[in-house]
Write a structure and sequence with these properties.
Distance between the termini: 27 Å
Bound molecules: S-adenosylmethionine, iron/sulfur cluster
Strand content: 15-25%
Number of helices: 10
Strand order of the largest sheet: 7-8-9-6-5-4-3-2-1-10-11-12
CATH topology: TIM Barrel
Radius of gyration: 20 Å
Structural class: alpha/beta
Number of strands: 12
Oligomer: single chain
Helix content: 25-40%
CATH superfamily: Aldolase class I
Low-confidence stretches: none
CATH architecture: Alpha-Beta Barrel
Number of domains: 1
Length: 350
């Protein structure tokens, strides 16, 4: 694997027109999924990408190497559900062999994590983010259309035991379904030693059912949590999408005992009501090899086409630089005329 051959004077950074440096790359390994979360995709699934359209392991390695040579420092594997792809641990091992060494993490629904966590950790995976919206089996079944809560909890425990830490848990709250469960989720996460973050529902659902009025806002989440916990904002945020809050006091209930290493924090990722576009350092590579500089944008750069047409590393690097230069200032969700992207979250890579 050759690093991109660049002129010696070219700095190894990806700067956009607004002075932001792109250092974090999300790579979608597949658009398929083992769940059918109601806020993400329909019960019958979606029109999946044909296998030939999906980047091979070799192609992902080649592109990751080019991105690494351009100053990208972290790679998050995602999807769809990344663990439905065959051979993820092998891919992780190869990614971990790239130099400079990239930090490697994975976003997963954890259905298949119990069996794979240890091998993934041995292969060089550094951390996982697990998506879990409820601890109630029936509610989980309704929200994901699959009765698999026990598998997710086992996956979380396996990730922690394998040292894939800090284990982060991401939850999307829906007003009529799990909003009232937010304090219980936080108490559970603190006790177990997982870092919980609540994510605002974004206009990225496959069925385009999202509305601003239905969305649970960060303010609402804080209000519900405030009924059970005393929270204090943590000042420094950097490029992290989550606003963090220190949990000062917990619920006065039997069994309340946060784990000592839990950090006693909770995060809120409020992409809609408190956008963090000014600090965005992200890029996304879809499973079919399209580079996106904004989750909500419409522009894609066809890296797969260039790769398969025989582009050199330097040519791929130039395509990436051009795309990053054109990264929009912000997502514009709150602006009149906002148009939801054609691809849903599961097909872009969350
Ligand atoms: N399948 C994996 C999972 O669920 O973790 C990875 C992909 S999933 C698209 C990544 C994250 O996006 C999950 O935490 C999920 O809850 C979240 N998500 C999906 N659709 C969303 C939406 N419309 N708004 C906000 N978050 C969403
Ligand atoms: Fe699958 Fe993740 Fe979408 Fe749920 S949120 S349907 S787990 S891709």
């Amino acid at each position: 694997m050759n690093p991109p051959s660049e002129p010696a004077t070219e700095p190894a950074v990806l700067l956009d027109a607004f002075g932001r440096r792109a250092e974090d790359l999300r790579i979608s390994l597949t658009d398929k999924c083992s769940l059918r979360c109601t806020y993400c995709m329909p019960a019958e699934g979606l029109a999946w990408l044909p296998a030939t359209a999906v980047l091979s392991d070799d192609e992902i390695l080649r592109l990751a190497s080019v991105f690494g040579g351009l100053g990208v420092r972290t790679i998050r594997l995602t999807g769809g559900e990344p663990l439905v792809r065959a051979g993820v641990a092998g891919l992780v091992r190869r990614l971990a062999g790239l130099r400079p060494r990239l930090e490697l993490s994975l976003t997963t629904n954890a259905i298949a994590l119990a069996d794979k966590a240890e091998e993934l950790a041995r292969s060089g995976l550094d951390r996982v983010n697990v998506s879990l919206d409820t601890l109630d089996r029936a509610k989980f079944h309704t929200l994901t259309r699959r009765d698999r809560l026990a598998d997710v909890l086992a996956g979380l425990a396996a990730a922690q035991a394998a040292g894939l830490s800090p284990v982060k848990v991401n939850a999307v709250l829906m007003r009529d379904q799990n909003l009232s469960e937010a304090p219980e989720l936080l108490a559970w996460a603190l006790r177990a030693g997982y870092q919980l973050r609540f994510i605002e529902h974004m206009p990225l659902d496959a069925e385009h059912l999202w509305t601003m009025a239905d969305m649970v806002t960060a303010d609402e989440v804080l209000e519900v949590l405030g009924q059970s916990f005393r929270l204090r904002p943590v000042a420094h945020r950097g490029h992290a999408p989550a606003e963090e809050f220190e949990v000062l006091d917990g619920p006065d209930r039997p069994g309340w005992a946060p784990a000592p290493d839990a950090g006693h924090r909770v995060g809120i990722i409020a992409s809609v009501t408190r956008p963090f576009c000014r600090d965005c350092d992200r890029l996304r590579l879809t499973a079919d090899g399209q580079l996106r500089t904004c989750l909500f944008g419409h522009a894609e750069t066809d890296l797969r086409g260039a790769l398969r047409a025989g582009a050199t590393d330097a040519e791929l690097a130039e395509l990436i630089r051009q795309a990053v230069r054109a990264k929009p200032a912000g997502h514009g969700i709150n602006a009149p005329g906002f148009r939801q992207p054609e691809r849903p979250m599961s097909a872009i890579g969350g």
